[in-house]
C-alpha cells in the first residue's frame, strides 16, 4: 500500500442479538371448588328468606323450611346470620416482612451519574505504513483545529478529522530524515517538525508553507517538542533542552542541561510556568521558568530518580495544579504521581507493562495509559484510586504514540503494527464549551528565515 495514503479498514458487521422467543401460553380451565357453589346456595337463601324476619310485615316461616336452614348451616359450619358484615375498623395486619425490604429503592438523585459505557474496540482503523517503531520518538499530535498529524518515515501527513480528508505536508530527503517528532502550536495552524539531522522546521499548515528552520539548538536528532505560547521547546539525543522564541531572528533564548542521555519526553504545565522533561537516563526534571535566572539557566527545580527505565510518558493533570504523572519503560512498568510544588512522590502503580504514553481525561478524574509488551493495550484508570476501568485491545505491537482530540472525547493511538486507531474512551462531556478562538498573534512576525 502506498505510504502516502491511508485507507479505512473494513468493519465487521455486528452480529444481530438473539431474538427472544415468545413462549406460547397454555389455555387452562379454571378450577372452581364445589363448596363455592354451595356457598352461593346459602347466600341466596339468606338474602331471600333469612332477612325477612326483621321486616315490618314478616312472613311466617314453615317448620320444614327452618329445619332445612339449620341442617344446611351445620353441614357447612356457617352458623352466622350474615355473609358480609361491616365493622368499624379493619384488624391491623401482622407485618411478617418489613416494608423497607419489600419497598423499591429510592429514586436515583439527579447529582449521581450513570455508569459510562466504554467501547472495547476502536471506532476506526487507518493504515500507517512505515511508521517508525521507536520508543524515544513522538510522531503523532492532534491540533486544536481538529487536524491530526502523523509522521511516516520521511513524510508528514495531515488527516482532517472533520471531513476525513488526507494531505501530504512535507517529504524530506533520505539524508535529512526520518522525521523524529511533531508538535502543533496552540493556534492549531503551525506545526513544528523535528528531524534526524538535528534540525527543526516550522510549517504553516493552512498554506503548506515552510516558515523557518531552526539549526543551532542541537547536535543530534530532535525526538521531543513542546509549545508554551510562542516558545518552542526542543529535546535532543544530545541531552539538551532548548527554548526557542519563534518570533525573533536568533531564537535560542534558554538551554537546560540536566539529562545525560536522550530527552524523549517534554510537557509544559497548563500554567506555562513549569516544564517536565523525561530522558533515557531514567530521570525526570522539573524546570520552573520563574526560578530560572540569567546566572543559572541550567538549574532544575526538582530531579526525580525513582524510575528504573527511560521516561517518555508525561502528563500534567488538568484539574489539579502541580500534579504530574510519569511512566517508565520496559524495566520499570510504573506510573508515578508527583507534587511538583513540594517534589513529593504521591503514588506509584506497577502496570506490569512498558508505559509508552499517558493522557488525562479533560472532563473526569481518569487517566489513560498506553503500553508495550506484553499485551500492547490501552488502560483506563480511575484517579486517585487507580482502579482499572477498562482495557482496550486491538494493536498487535506496542502502542508508542497517543493524541487526544480537541474536545477531549476521542483518542488516537499509533503502534508498530502500522495502524492508527481511534477510541471513544473518554465519553461525551455533559456540557460542551465553545472552543477558544485561535490566536495567531505569536506568529505575526514569523518570516521565511532559513
TrEMBL record:
Gene Ontology terms for molecular function? anaphase-promoting complex binding; ubiquitin ligase activator activity
Segments carrying the region annotation (Disordered) are 1-26, 96-122, 430-450
Mark the WD repeats by their residue spans: 172-213, 256-288, 392-425
Recite the UniProt keywords alphabetically.
Answer: Cell cycle, Cell division, Mitosis, Repeat, WD repeat
Please give the superkingdom of this protein's source. Answer: Eukaryota
Q: What SUPFAM superfamilies does the database record attribute to this sequence?
A: WD40 repeat-like
Which residue ranges have biased composition labelled Polar residues? 1-11
Annotated GO biological process: anaphase-promoting complex-dependent catabolic process; cell division; positive regulation of anaphase-promoting complex-dependent catabolic process
Supply the CDD domains for this chain.
Answer: WD40
The keyword Repeat belongs to this UniProt entry's keyword annotation: yes
Known InterPro entries for this protein? Cdc20/Fizzy, WD40/YVTN_repeat-like_dom_sf, WD40_CDC20-Fz, WD40_repeat_CS, WD40_repeat_dom_sf, WD40_rpt
The record places domain CDC20/Fizzy WD40 at 126-423
Of the GO CC terms on this record, one is: anaphase-promoting complex
Q: Which PANTHER family match?
A: CELL DIVISION CYCLE 20 CDC20 FIZZY -RELATED (PTHR19918), TRANSDUCIN FAMILY PROTEIN_WD-40 REPEAT PROTEIN (PTHR19918:SF39)
Task: Name the family the entry cites.
Answer: Belongs to the WD repeat CDC20/Fizzy family.
| Designated name of the protein | CDC20/Fizzy WD40 domain-containing protein
Question: What is the organism field in this record?
Answer: Canavalia gladiata (Sword bean)
Amino acid at each position: 500500500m502506498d505510504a502516502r495514503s491511508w485507507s479505512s479498514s473494513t468493519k465487521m458487521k455486528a452480529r444481530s442479538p438473539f431474538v427472544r422467543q415468545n413462549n406460547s401460553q397454555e389455555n387452562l380451565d379454571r378450577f372452581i371448588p364445589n363448596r363455592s357453589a354451595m356457598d352461593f346456595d346459602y347466600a341466596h337463601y339468606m338474602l331471600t328468606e333469612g332477612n325477612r324476619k326483621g321486616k315490618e310485615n314478616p312472613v311466617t316461616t314453615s317448620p320444614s323450611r327452618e329445619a332445612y336452614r339449620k341442617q344446611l348451616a351445620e353441614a357447612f359450619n356457617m352458623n352466622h346470620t350474615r355473609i358480609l358484615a361491616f365493622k368499624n375498623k379493619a384488624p391491623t395486619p401482622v407485618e411478617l416482612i418489613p416494608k423497607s425490604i419489600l419497598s423499591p429503592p429510592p429514586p436515583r438523585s439527579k447529582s449521581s451519574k450513570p455508569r459510562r459505557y466504554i467501547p472495547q474496540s476502536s471506532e476506526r482503523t487507518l493504515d500507517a505504513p512505515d511508521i517508525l517503531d521507536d520508543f524515544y520518538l513522538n510522531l503523532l499530535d492532534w491540533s486544536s483545529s481538529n487536524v491530526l498529524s502523523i509522521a511516516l518515515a520521511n513524510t508528514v501527513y495531515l488527516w482532517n478529522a472533520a471531513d476525513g480528508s488526507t494531505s501530504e505536508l512535507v517529504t524530506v530527503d533520505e539524508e535529512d530524515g526520518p522525521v523524529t517528532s511533531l508538535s502543533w502550536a496552540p493556534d492549531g495552524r503551525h506545526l513544528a517538525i523535528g528531524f534526524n539531522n538535528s534540525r527543526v522546521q516550522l510549517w504553516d499548515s493552512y498554506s503548506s508553507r515552510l516558515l523557518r528552520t531552526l539549526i543551532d539548538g542541537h547536535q543530534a536528532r530532535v525526538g521531543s517538542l513542546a509549545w508554551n505560547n510562542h516558545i518552542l521547546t526542543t529535546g535532543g539525543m544530545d541531552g539538551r533542552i532548548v527554548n526557542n522564541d519563534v518570533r525573533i531572528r536568533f531564537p535560542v533564548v534558554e538551554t537546560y542541561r540536566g539529562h545525560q542521555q536522550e530527552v524523549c519526553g517534554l510537557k509544559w504545565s497548563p500554567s506555562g510556568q513549569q516544564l517536565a522533561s523525561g530522558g533515557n537516563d531514567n530521570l525526570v526534571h522539573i524546570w520552573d521558568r520563574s526560578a530560572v535566572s540569567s546566572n543559572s539557566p541550567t538549574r532544575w527545580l526538582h530531579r526525580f530518580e525513582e524510575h528504573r527505565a527511560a521516561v517518555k510518558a508525561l502528563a500534567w493533570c488538568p484539574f489539579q495544579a502541580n500534579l504530574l504523572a510519569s511512566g517508565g519503560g520496559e524495566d520499570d512498568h510504573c506510573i508515578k504521581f508527583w507534587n511538583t510544588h513540594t517534589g513529593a512522590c504521591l503514588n506509584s502503580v506497577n502496570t506490569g507493562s512498558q508505559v509508552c504514553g499517558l493522557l488525562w481525561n479533560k472532563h473526569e478524574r481518569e487517566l489513560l495509559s498506553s503500553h508495550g509488551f506484553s499485551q500492547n493495550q490501552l488502560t483506563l484508570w480511575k484517579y486517585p484510586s487507580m482502579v482499572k476501568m477498562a482495557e482496550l485491545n486491538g494493536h498487535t505491537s506496542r502502542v508508542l504514540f497517543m493524541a487526544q482530540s480537541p474536545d477531549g472525547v476521542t483518542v488516537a493511538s499509533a503502534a508498530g503494527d502500522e495502524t492508527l486507531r481511534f477510541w471513544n474512551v473518554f465519553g461525551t462531556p455533559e456540557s460542551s464549551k465553545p472552543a477558544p478562538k485561535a490566536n495567531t498573534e505569536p506568529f505575526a512576525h514569523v518570516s521565511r528565515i532559513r
